[in-house]
Predict the 3D structure of the following.
Amino acid sequence: MANKEITVKLIKSPISCTQTQKATILGLGLKKVGQQGTLENTPCVRGMIKKMINWLEINPTTK
């Protein structure tokens, strides 16, 4: 079975975010605008993406 992953890219600056939102972005492994990260498709990761959907670009990938 294919291991599904999600590629996320930070497209908006988190300067105007609250501390918890900034912590969520760091939890996704993103620090700078334009940075990309590949994460496993788990409910925890999907919940963090859902909270920060306006700041992210999401591309599903299969491994």
In short: The chain has one domain: 15-62. The longest helix spans residues 19-27. The two ends are 10 Å apart (CA to CA). Strands lie at 4-10, 36-40, 56-62.
